[in-house]
Amino acid sequence: xxxxxxxxxxxxxxxxxxxxxxxxxxxxxxxxxxxxxxxxxxxxxxxxxxxxxxxxxxxxxxxxxxxxxxxxxxxxxxxxxxxxxxxxxxxxxxxxxxxxxxxxxxxxxxxxxxxxxxxxxxxxxxxxxxxxxxxxxxxxxxxxxxxxxxxxxxxxxxxxxxxxxxxxxxxxxxxxxxxxxxxxxxxxxxxxxxxxxxxxxxxxxxxxxxxxxxxxxxxxxxxxxxxxxxxxxxxxxxxxxxxxxxxxxxxxxxxxxxxxxxxxxxxxxxxxxxxxxxxxxxxxxxxxxxxxxxxxxxxxxxxxxxxxxxxxxxxxxxxxxxxxxxxxxxxxxxxxxxxxxxxxxxxxxxxxxxxxxxxxxxxxx
Length: 365
Prior knowledge:
Layout: E1 21-25, H1 35-51, E2 56-59, H2 73-82, E3 88-95, H3 101-114, E4 119-124, H4 131-138, H5 143-148, H6 150-162, H7 181-184, E5 197-201, H8 204-213, E6 217-219, H9 228-238, E7 250-258, H10 262-280, H11 290-295, H12 300-311, E8 314-316, H13 318-332, E9 336-340, H14 346-359
Parallel strand pairs: 1-2, 1-9, 2-3, 3-4, 4-5, 5-6, 6-7, 7-8, 7-9
């Protein structure tokens, strides 16, 4: 295996934060906004995160969702790499069953060549969309097969990244480029590093697999909060030291939004809750405005869903959000918090990350 240094995985807590803080961006598109505006906001968030001492900036693969413009993580990350200098950039994640492992090895090998030592490759086994769209992506109706084959796909991807298929393997003469093979060519020079792999999950499957393989693990607390502690416990119990990590390292994705007052924070997070309600009801669309969300007449069943959804979002003033994040880090024992701030407009999201940075006394104010 090519060298992966522990410091490329483990972050450093800045200011008074209990653990390293990072950013997960869904590149949300609000009503009246364009994908261009959403992507520009993503760049601004990445630059703010770098300036204020957040450890990494990740984007998540989603498909066929009008309100989420992150269908192509590698493309977004390539652009973001060009306008940042230090912050780690990665996928949270690439949904591996949607892709040929060789393609992902090539994409992230290219990213590593563009931004050496700054790229993370987070992998999930869900489709990141509905079943029909997944079938269109994978060119097959046998969707469960893709998820069930995830460990095999992961092994294949790792072999391509390390360029170490054994002799006699059908792929032994196939190489992911950019990659280690370039160091073996006449006159070739190639960095020994490659992007560290992370496994993502919202249940126990990837937690156990990450532990068995000695890989870092990222859990989707922001939409599967009831499974967080059991999954992290399973990861730690299953962990076996590897060439990558000598001890478990787990981050959790956290939905959090800070505003100048509690009412404004509530207005902003309600837009995301209504958007999720529509998505879960089979009516995905752009993120509604705060005015539309406030005026919406929720049925009792819809109100129960929204109240439950909002209960898992840390929101309020900067001090309230800091207290909520501190409590979450303590309760879960997470090694890193990756904050996702979903709201209608980019201004509210940028303001939130700035307020959270201020609350923890992060550098670069």
